[in-house]
Amino acid sequence: MSFLALERVEKTYPNGTRAVKGVDLAIEEGEFIVLLGPSGCGKTTTLRMIAGLELATGGSIRLAGREVTLAKPSERDVGFVFQFYALYPHLDVAANIGFPLEATGVGRAEREKLVREVAEELDLSHLLARRPRELSGGDQQRVALARAMVRKPAAWLMDEPLGTLDADRRLEMCEFVRARQLRARVTTVYVTHDQEEAMRLADRVVVMSDGLILQDAPPLDVYDEPASLFVARFVGSPGMNFVEGEVRERDGTVRFRPRGAELELAVPRGAKPGPATLGVRAEFVGVVRGDGRATLRGRVKVDEYLGSSRSLHVDTPLGRVVARGDADAPSAVGEEVGLELALDHVRLFDPASGRRLA
Ligand code: ATP
Question: Which of 3, 130, 205, 296 sits CB 3.0–4.6 Å from 339 for a disulfide?
Answer without folding.
Answer: 296
